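Why run this: before we spend reagent on co-expression, it is cheaper to look at a predicted model of the complex and decide which construct boundaries make sense. The entries below are exactly what would go into the expression plan.
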Amino acid sequence: MRVAQPQTARCGVSRRSAVSVKAQAVASPAPATAQLKTDVAKIAVLGASGYTGAEVVRLCALHPNIKVTVLTGDKQAGKAFSDVFPHLMTASNVPKLVKIDDVNWSDVDAAFCCLPHATTQAVIKNLPSSLKVVDLSADFRLKDPKSYAEWYGHEHAALDLQKEAVYGLTEIYRDQVKKARLLANPGCYPTCSQLPLYPLVKAGLVLPDDIIIDAKSGVSGAGRAAKESNLYCEIAEGINSYAVGSHRHMPEIEQGLSEAAGAPVRISFTPHLMNLSRGMQCTMYVKTAPGVTADDLRSHLEKAYEGEHFVKVLPKGVIPHTRHVRGSNFALMNVFPDRLPGRAVVICCIDNLVKGASGQGLQNLNLMMGWPETTALGQLAMFP
Amino acid sequence: MRVAQPQTARCGVSRRSAVSVKAQAVASPAPATAQLKTDVAKIAVLGASGYTGAEVVRLCALHPNIKVTVLTGDKQAGKAFSDVFPHLMTASNVPKLVKIDDVNWSDVDAAFCCLPHATTQAVIKNLPSSLKVVDLSADFRLKDPKSYAEWYGHEHAALDLQKEAVYGLTEIYRDQVKKARLLANPGCYPTCSQLPLYPLVKAGLVLPDDIIIDAKSGVSGAGRAAKESNLYCEIAEGINSYAVGSHRHMPEIEQGLSEAAGAPVRISFTPHLMNLSRGMQCTMYVKTAPGVTADDLRSHLEKAYEGEHFVKVLPKGVIPHTRHVRGSNFALMNVFPDRLPGRAVVICCIDNLVKGASGQGLQNLNLMMGWPETTALGQLAMFP
Amino acid sequence: MRVAQPQTARCGVSRRSAVSVKAQAVASPAPATAQLKTDVAKIAVLGASGYTGAEVVRLCALHPNIKVTVLTGDKQAGKAFSDVFPHLMTASNVPKLVKIDDVNWSDVDAAFCCLPHATTQAVIKNLPSSLKVVDLSADFRLKDPKSYAEWYGHEHAALDLQKEAVYGLTEIYRDQVKKARLLANPGCYPTCSQLPLYPLVKAGLVLPDDIIIDAKSGVSGAGRAAKESNLYCEIAEGINSYAVGSHRHMPEIEQGLSEAAGAPVRISFTPHLMNLSRGMQCTMYVKTAPGVTADDLRSHLEKAYEGEHFVKVLPKGVIPHTRHVRGSNFALMNVFPDRLPGRAVVICCIDNLVKGASGQGLQNLNLMMGWPETTALGQLAMFP
Amino acid sequence: MRVAQPQTARCGVSRRSAVSVKAQAVASPAPATAQLKTDVAKIAVLGASGYTGAEVVRLCALHPNIKVTVLTGDKQAGKAFSDVFPHLMTASNVPKLVKIDDVNWSDVDAAFCCLPHATTQAVIKNLPSSLKVVDLSADFRLKDPKSYAEWYGHEHAALDLQKEAVYGLTEIYRDQVKKARLLANPGCYPTCSQLPLYPLVKAGLVLPDDIIIDAKSGVSGAGRAAKESNLYCEIAEGINSYAVGSHRHMPEIEQGLSEAAGAPVRISFTPHLMNLSRGMQCTMYVKTAPGVTADDLRSHLEKAYEGEHFVKVLPKGVIPHTRHVRGSNFALMNVFPDRLPGRAVVICCIDNLVKGASGQGLQNLNLMMGWPETTALGQLAMFP
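The model came back. Tokens follow.
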């Protein structure tokens, strides 16, 4: 975002998001202090037996400032992490899974919380308040307790924390993120849709009362729970809509766009389950303000994300593909003219497990800890 | 469609579309005359080396009134069909591929034309006018020569035939189809979108000036040509929009909806390429007429397709999946309330190669030949 | 098999396996008697909520002599079948699921038993002995009670039935199958491997003491149970061996090959899980008898399966693909020279749910009921 | 390999393959000299428009000592690399594609050659002899000119270079690799099969005259050429053997095993095409020397690869999966008892594009340049 200010100088490293990944990867350890013991933080991953937990571990493996010291998984406690996620058997120094009640918190500087919705608030409430927390659940995303109760079916159990939590759509709320102690990491759909829509609505270029989001997601977003509906045979070679008109990411998107619009916004949001492990696309059908063209929207996004490392507005006419972000923290977006006058088509693609979850979580932790924002996020997309 | 009248009595078989497939399958040979030699038609498949051609052969293999006597494929001429499509090696009595110029037309009663767009018109122009033709290309779908020239980049070369051609969206135009000699088989997207939209627009339940179609298709729609962009590695585990605002199925859909609305209609249409071999879904975002609800739309579709064998309006709240029509000629549809007031979400799923191409083609030929409409189309969807 | 004799004349229909599917499909209702009420059998599918049960229903939907009157599924009892398998919602007259204890057996002529291993024997023991039963579980495949106890970890609970059961590898044991009341339908791997190996071992062309089977199967073979290891994300874009040296199909294959060899045979058998819904290939590495070539093996298989409808020995040099049998009851096989002297490579492909389970089950029931063997099995493979 | 000796001290960095990736990633820039301009090598990728070329670029993006200055692609010359591989659009400072004839070789320190077989030798012959070259084609793998002529159908055009070339199966030939100027990077199948077989044959634990390799590979191994047989629809949901008894990787494997055995070795080798983008497994059926057990083989491999970073012998009984190495440079292997006495089953999995091609290529270049062997190869497998 254009409005982003320079990072605080906590580590003497100002944000240089326009700089290339590689340059940063090389540069990151450059300040001698970065090699000091005090700059290696001890990190816990709570709920490490799910896909977002595993993805946190995968990304952190290349992080020079992170040592993963705690992995929890109540049902899998006692197991080696490589028994649960053999693809990470080659990671070094990964601890065994333990029960969350058995964690020695004095040995932890920060935590990724990858627990299921609802149970998260109870857990975080009892953590030492000194701990920095990136919460990947939905528990602290909705600011309005009534809205939370309406969509999640029960009163929130940690209202104080809910007030404290910072919503971590990094490129939009970077300044708040830097100061956050408890960070509510955005949902995958809210990330993919708000990244383009927030600036457009905020600038008044898109009418806020007729936003239609046709969202498509890979299956990993549904987690690793053993459900019949997510079996290979049930998913392969087929697609379907789901939760039409009732998905819980709807109020989260509406919250952000309402803030951008300065008035309550309702959206049309229809998610689709794709036969993909990873990958998410939002195809957004918007009405433009009078006199505004698709090109104007595109230009505005270009300016809004100028210098951003992870958000790329593609050249005019180039269509984003989910496969071009697979495994990476990038968001690709573009705007196209619609055949219907006064309309435009906005497209954004992310990897739901990276920019839509663990990658953005690490991006946020980097900021919260004063590390360069792109640290350990330099992996390019894997294709084919 | 409600308005459908009883079939002509050509074969003494009135349409009984509400009757089960199996009942018909059993019943179909029942009339003694159906076993007569005169009721076995000799069929040619022109352009049999592509996927739609192969699908025609697959379906016809179970047809008691069809004998496939000619298969053309200019590049593959001389080859056994099983060399080109080994999965059909077990079909009986399938002829070799020949060049189209070498066909003895006196030995053919009807033809499926599965040739590429543009070349088709030149070929069909030179066929004996006695031949019944089901054309699966786009050449005869657009009635307006100007529109054809605009979207296809050249003047139409067979304007007389274009006038004669009947547009074969079977459930909508059944009466005309029965009398057709040259049938323009609808495109896959136009089938999937018009089946629900046509009756809704015609009844004035949906506003015709703000119809948004988010369409998703499997790769087989792109044919068997060896293109880099359709390689397994380019498609697997990824999705993308394509031809945003410029797909040639757009004017075809607009033509149908304009007729339904009684006034010119423009639509928003964005196709997406899915990592599926087969399967198509259109998710349609529509504005309802004042006072009309999503339930009203659903009820209207139920009535419109009451008794139709191949079009099923699902029970309220049940979401269509592409995998539930794979390999079959069925269209599944439903309507859902939208969170945005005055809007509804309409969903339709088909197999793009069956109801979206070869299956509907055979359904049309059945009508054109006076055979029971469901003959050889009784295969249920294959899952998993 | 060459040795197959004409069918018994129970229904006055001699086997004509060399006749084409279509010819048979047309011909099947031809004998006037076939239309009599007495020729429509009432069929129960026990355990209809799994993939093999669904596949039985899919295939039977095109069968002129079968009316499915009972579907059981203890956990899903009370549900419409279309709630459990929406792809079969278009099947006509399919009953609701009931508990097995609530079945009125007087209304059933024959049953497909698709229950889990071990529970099957208890269930079948209590069925009326007049009922013809095709059992798709492993419960009655092993003839030797000791072998059963060794591989399944408990004594067999229905030893009398075990003696009575006929092993239904149709092309090999057709004569016994015709007379069977209780049929043990072969496992998928045993079908795919024995079809080529049995005749070769029996003829002494392959040495029985060094047979190596590298087997590859789609995931549907593992059933519809909600297991983490079968989730889409766990299977997609990856393969692995499993149950190396310990798969329960091993003794079943050994039983058949021992019979063929006239002496105990042990095999090397390594199954692999493929990211396929359907499809199975066995690649078999065999030592030939002195002086015997790969071509000799191929020729022998050609003779052995001459006139067989469902078993095809491909032309010399042509490689079988699983995709060329998907959805069909065919087995494709071939033999290739090995670079190692004295060795040959034998390949066989089937659809594990059809020829490897429900299709062969129906093929067997057809014989047991005196119907033409290919009835309702005329569907060609679906590709792409 | 056990026999591996310490690296030469060219850069003062001894090999520390047992050290963790992360430790190395952090440590790699540690020697102050590593940051010197002289330690950044200018790298050309010849044939960068194919999958192995793209994979080289992806991996090099994280390499602190590499600057990619030249990308060639004769057909795509003039295009931005991101037009050809959009997933790498986020890589920094990637040059445009140029014709190979337009390269200024004075600006290149080393080259990855990803050109097609046969054309490679002509190209490399004309490169400056000062250039270090890692050749990913098959052109320099076979040492015997007769064998090359036999398998490739023509005389080799650069026999001098063929003599000079070092075969780069890194863990086996590390010492030679370090001194290489022209490196013949092994084929994917030869890597996957020789890694376990070479030490076992060399130690005399496996009989060399009856080695059977059932190999399974993803489609990316076939490259990005637009072939009908590699279209999504032709590959998805199906598998097949190919090139039975005639694959060109056969003599390459035989060459290595012959050297290990000290006598000519012939193998049985049957490759299978999987519906995977990436992933390779060799399932190897071997006869053990008298008295030698599967456990003995496993123990020997454990010792042989002790301390190796990229080769992992899994714990007893744990089965390697291709999905656990996807995107990474690791090889996972294990040995299992066979039911046939005197036999064992050896399994190895790699990512065919990484350890089977570009990753091993970079591993070799690291050694040739005197950089730590694991530099830029620290990425863990991506799952799901």
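Chain C touches chain B through 47 residues (CB under 8 Å). Chain C has two domains: 21-187+356-369, 189-351. Bring this page to Monday's planning discussion.
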